[in-house]
Records
---
Amino acid sequence: MFPIFLLALMLGPQSFANDNLLVTPTELVQQSISFNDDLEYKNLLLAIERQKAYFARAPLKGKIKFGNDTYDRDILGKSLNQLEFMIRKYILCVESMRGFNLPFGTEKTYCQKEFSKAVNQKFKIYKPQEDIQRREDISGPGRALFTAYYSPDFNGSLTKTETFKNPIYSLPTDPALKKLTRKEIDFQNKLDGKNLELFYVEESLFDLYLLSVEGGGRVKVGEDYHYISYAGANGHPFKFLYHYLIDNGLLPMNQAGLEEQRQYLETNPHQQEAVYSSNPSYIFFKITLDEPMGVGSIPLTSERSLALDSKIYSQPGLLNFVVSKKPYLDEAGKVRYKNFSRFFLGQDTGGAIKGRARADLYMGFGREAQIQANNMKYYGEQYFLVSKE
């Protein structure tokens, strides 16, 4: 998502050879892969359903090239149908074996092995060409760099009170209002009285800044939750706050994480206007019935949607398999990392997501999702799957 930079589908130097052919910078994988997914498949089936609904609205036309192979672009829909069929076959396999009184977990191990074998047989597997010039000093073997994002929760009200005082705004129709900077909106109150407030929340301006980074969230009003998604931006450049904090000597480079930024702003209120104003970009939101939206108003699915570089992978619905490490908190509250592997669908884009071997994983809502989003920056392997049929 990162819809702060949500881009219209556009041509890029590595993407289209012409209007009808999308060329992906990928190469064929010659060996078998272990397709061992660390989650249950419920959310993956939901993500597939949402993607198929998008394909029904935006029929697949033209061609797409993976490695040296060129396909009609409707192969993407066929690939999802193939995977869905195999997942349902796996589920039936597990259910049928449970009647044999086998040792715990045996049925899943056997069925997963058969599932992985079938995926290797039924799909061609590709991997992105490595961005050697973009290689960063980050832990983890592999060619693809993974980060994560999530949807923050807010406590809100429909009316302004002493507790609920910070507004979340809808997109103005007046062009002059739409172009206002963050300073003009947050500190000069130039949107006050324009009837654009969706909610007032008790969380801080820093939390609203993070909402603009994540591009969507959830607001609890009373007992009800309301989803909010990206509706538009003011057109000014987005600049992360840590640049200003570091460049002006307010925080050292090695101590400028999100929590350090938050603490500095809370303990130095006199600096808030200057710091927040260093990012003139402002994001407006809309209320949606589903989870925050990705490309083409596809509802994102927790732990099953990811964002790719739209200048390179401009077609939504690419079937991905990710192998890397994810962060978690141990019993002492320290961030640790553990192996994971999982199917994802390319259903989002982001201006901060740049490169052939680069993906941002959507982790959903809640504390665990936040931990992963704030701490994941790890290399691993990324694969694209295309049905042979």
---
Amino acid sequence: MLRHQLGVLHRQTDRPALNDNDRTLLGAIAAALPRPRRQGWIVTPDTLHRWHRQRIARHWTHATRGPGRPPTSNETRRLVLRLATENPTWGYRRIHRELASLGHHIAPSTVWKILKTNGIDPAPKRSEVTWSQFLHSQAAVACDFFTVDTAPLRSYYVLFFIDIPTRQVFYAGTTANPTGAWTTQAARNLFLCHGDKLSGSRVSVRDRGSQFIDTFDEIFRTEGPKNPQDTSPHPGRRRLR
């Protein structure tokens, strides 16, 4: 009887108009019913899959940003290069202050980018040793999180460590809630499983995330790199030496 009624409705309406509530209800019912009970529906399985893909895409689509900063004028660019060329001891911050006094209001990072793009060192007196060279010389091990988004709209956090001189990556664990206690235990498990491979590490590199608590650093003091000190030259980046 139900199949016959649906056949009558199909003859009267070529394509039914469904709203979001209808799609959600039909999708939930389809997930609960066995496949043989889905015959005679007004939508096909491919349509249900397409609705699910669209729902996932809408959930993870973020609003686009505005047009952003206006482009820097050619006159300002030429002035930055002239100041840097005529004053080789000036860094990008000194050049930025001079530009501000002349009425050119741009960000210090823009000055730095212009200098770097044109091959001019923004800080002539900085050390010859690059950040990468320093990390390799100190046998550093770095750690961080990356996220994995699943179809049921859940996010999982994966903790990993990388031995910078060898570029070898060590998987430390996956969790939906990366607390400080979990991160500390993951670091302890890392040295239990791979302590021999990291025995020569003298520096650990991490950001200042709230997951990296004092007990996490204590693991590196007792089981990893020795004599740790915070010698970070840049805000937002911490090195334990």
---
Amino acid sequence: MDHPIKRDHARFRKIVKGRVRDNLRKYVSQGQQIIPKGDDKFTIPMPSIDIPRFRFGDKSQGGTGQGDGQAGDPVDGKPGEGEPGEGEAGEGEGNKELEVEMGIDELAKILSEELELPNIEPKGKKQIASSVDKYTSIGTVGPDSLKHLKRTYKEALKRQVAMGTYDPMNPRVIPMKADYRYRSADTKVEMENSAVVIYMMDVSGSMGEEQKEIVRTESFWINLWLKSQYKDIDIRYIIHDATAKEVDEDTFFRTRESGGTLISSALKLCKNIIETDYDPNEWNIYPFHFSDGDNWSADDTKLCLSLLDDFILPASNMFCYGQVESRYGSGQFYKDLFNKYTEGHEKVILSKIKNKDAILDSIKDFLGKGN
């Protein structure tokens, strides 16, 4: 039978999950801070959950704290002590914000339920073998840290009964070295899929802080979902204006340039990264490109389409293009992709992201097919 504390904890976790699910759009659109804590754990602010408190009964029933005194009287009865301090009382109820910890699988399940996301089925990719140690058997040798006390004493009891030295009136069981038992690992080979996500973003002058914040938030939730689907995942970042370079995550979201835009520079670098580090026969490959739709010329757009057709699309599970609305962006690149790929090409997924309120819908556009 479950302990009442365990039942209460399970009920509280259910309430927390319900609150996160009900407020998921607010977390996403308002940029609520969901903070990674390591080991695939995240800290989530929960300002709307009331903390349990005591309720006091009728004073006429007596009990601790009942008596003839008045509110504010000093405990020892001496006048002048225990009087209220100086200063003005605050106005309104205090902010009772609670932080809760949730795992990546819990958050991914909430995202999946909200957006009705299917599990990803890797297509045409080779599975990679990995060795996993599972402690499912018992051995006669091992370190003290793996000693199995219950099995050790059971062996000692069996030995003493067999030798006639066990006294039911004085039930002492003393293990010998030969009685010691240890948890033993069985090494199993499990097949797992690996994935790489390659983010590309236009950082030219027309992509402002608001646009980059949208990309940051969307990529956080995309990463979270993909990490729940793949045991091994790499994430690479490319920024570009007229030229492209690979950067770390912090640089990806902080850099802003003032030059023109050549989208082909990012796609070329993406191609080089795949060719160098990620065999398409062994990796599930997910390139994402975000921009406001400006490109330097129609000739460069033709080069982009050629790079997609000849290499990136055949190598990838899908290619996702997210167009973040900007007052300075023309949106032309979305139109060019739409005109070429809307008919019968499942690997190209396009999404327009008007503002932060559209982030969840964009994530559903990208992940809703389960590619």
---
Amino acid sequence: MTKRRRKKKLRLGRTLIILLILYVGFILLNQRKLMNELNSKKEKIQLEIETLKAEIDALNEEIENSHSLQFVEKVAREELGMVKPREIIYIDKNRIKKPFFGFRKK
């Protein structure tokens, strides 16, 4: 009778150890998956930060150059549609009629 109890205890102990090992393995795999997701998210955010810093630098440079005549001319041409005297602007009508891949630019 004692041999049966010992065998049952050994089986129960082995089963518990196996379950514990499986549980720890499962937790470790989930943590690894979470770490990979967080690292990829971190890389995306760092890339976004770098692009925003580059944009900020470009805007700061534009602010520094805002008092020059070239900047005033650039704004007048691009945003206000102004042209120099005796300057002729050509518009390609074919480009408007046949837009790229069927999309019209607005």
